[in-house]
Design goal:
3-stranded antiparallel β-sheet, alpha+beta, binds zinc ion, single chain
Length: about 90
Amino acid sequence: MRFLRRLLGRGEERPAGGEEAFEPVCPHVTLVARWDSADDIGKPEKVSSFICESCQTSFSREEGEQLQATEAERVRSLEAGRPGSQ
Ligand SMILES: [Zn+2]
């Protein structure tokens, strides 16, 4: 569980100093699709970019799709390997 918490970037104790250079790693699990044209909204093949709601990083459609694909795998493996379900 400690690993998952670190993945989500929550509950971390920051060292004193408050330097903004240190940023927790964002897993980019809250990708929001963006469309350039209003007519294309809702069409997966017309997505122009993705924005991560957590860290506001923007990704191309290909990058976003890759992130979503690998994120699903990562979450699945995390849940499959979760101990204590006896
Ligand atoms: Zn992010």
